[in-house]
Amino acid sequence: MKGPKRIDLDPGQVDALLKRVKALLPDEDYQIIKAMADTIYLLSQNVNAKSTSIRRLLKMLFGAATEKLENLDDHPEKASGTKPKPKKKGHGRNSAQAYTSAEKVTVAHASLKPGDDCPACIKGKVYEIKIPKRIVRITGNAPLSGTVYEMQRLRCNLCGEIFTADTPKEAGEDKYDAKAKTMIALLKYGSGMPFNRLENLQQSLGIPLPASTQFEIVDQMAATIEPVYQALMRKAAQGDVIRNDDTTMKVLSLIKENKNDDPERKGIFTTGILSTTEKRKIALFITGRQHAGENLDDLLKQRIDRGPPIQMCDALSRNIPAALKTILANCLAHGRRKFVDVIQSFPEECRHVLETLAGVYKNDQIAKERNMNPDERLHFHQQNSGPLMENLKDWFHQQLERKTAEPNSGLGQAIGYMLNHWQALTLFLKVPNAPLDNNLCEQALKKAILHRKNALFYKTEHGAWVGDLFMSLIHTCNLAGVNPFDYLTALQENAADLSNHPDKWMPWNYTAAASHSKNP
């Protein structure tokens, strides 16, 4: 038996139908049909809301594959069977130039050198080609390898005196050298490998490395390089644009307090702060009971003689600092996502919104490609994105005024969010350098989420502070295009200079300080 045919009616059509029924039928019949229509409408709204909630839950559990317009299930290109754009041709391999940290070995020709007679034609001279032939060979070993030095010992058979060979200089003074310590920190806080997992791996490879020893090593490292972390926070406080957001985190000592001491605030979060200034990006992580807005308040107290920064965040009130003023911008991607969530229930309306916002993002990409300065970018958006956003705002009001979208429906709530935060969502049309969204900060927070996914928790607040320090330094290196392994190693090798001149040891300028240290 076939199911009933689905007919989609907006509230205006339902009202018109009830008016016709009222004119034709007795009042008793009209009340029954009206109750049936109201019930069907209420049920459909609840089903749509439940479907949206289920889709959000699936995203939380398994992640969203994509939110791009062309990849949504009901996009016209997918419905019509249009083939997607072909991928650019390429073998997918990295060139030899991509291996920037690989050891380079120069191999000279066995029998020729520049200026020699050509052995093929005899008449010509050979000269060196600037680009040599390159091959790459990758070798493997344990994440941390070890060397056992065996110093010979001799004993006199008469007096019993023992003579031991001198320890070679390359053995060093510490059991774990700077590079070994750096590798532990990178695996744990850069790649999310828990200490016990690295312990098991090292044990199976014959180089034991207990988890407790690993934490002792990174804890000592953190104490050594803390001045650089504090200097990085001072630099971040001076940012022109500061993004912030929260993600939940588990700290066992704080969870224990929640059970035993019953504190007033029980939530535990890792705040991600991404500060941009002078084309430099600084990432900071702060774990504890404070929300993102409170952590930003503490950071901005270090701001020196500058006007309020542009703050980019989503519309949650806990993201906004209470004491210090900022120029608030809200994340356009958050507003867009609310329409993505309900596109299956309102395909035509949501597609209109998404296509309009796609035009705005395309304009922003053009501004980046043309390398526009903040004022040029603002003027470009005002000319090209301003009309798009103004038309979209008018369309939102029309949907509500004509009751095409009920305020309590998924579409109505998405529209309401956009209208309620319109000034902050469109700051990029009023203030130079204002970003469109908070995606950069959300990408940075994936460092903390990766740790939570693999290691599950921090044991103490101090352990969380150690993790915040290393994640901040490592991700700032990634944003600056700096090798974090070289950077953290250099900090350890020049520990004596860090406390006196931490500003010289930022990821973007440490090479000059390291070169000066080696060649005083």
In short:
This protein is α/β, with parallel strands linked by helices. Helix content is 49%, strand content 8%.
Structure description:
With 520 residues, this protein is an alpha/beta fold. Among the domains are: 11-47; 216-331 and 438-520, no CATH class. It has 19 helices and 7 strands. The chain has helices at 11-24, 27-62, 76-79, 178-190, 195-204, 211-237, 252-260, 292-300, 332-341, 347-369, 374-384, 386-401, 410-420, 422-425, 439-455, 461-480, 484-493, 495-498, 510-518, and strands spanning 153-155, 162-164, 241-248, 269-277, 280-288, 310-313, 327-330. The protein has a 5-stranded mixed sheet with strand order 5-4-3-6-7, sandwiched between helices. A two-stranded antiparallel sheet has the order 1-2. Strand 4 (269-277) and strand 5 (280-288) form a beta hairpin. Helix 4 (178-190) packs across helix 17 (484-493), helix 10 runs antiparallel to helix 11 and helix 12 crosses helix 13 (410-420). It is elongated, with a radius of gyration of 31 Å. The N and C termini lie far apart (89 Å). 26% of the residues are buried.
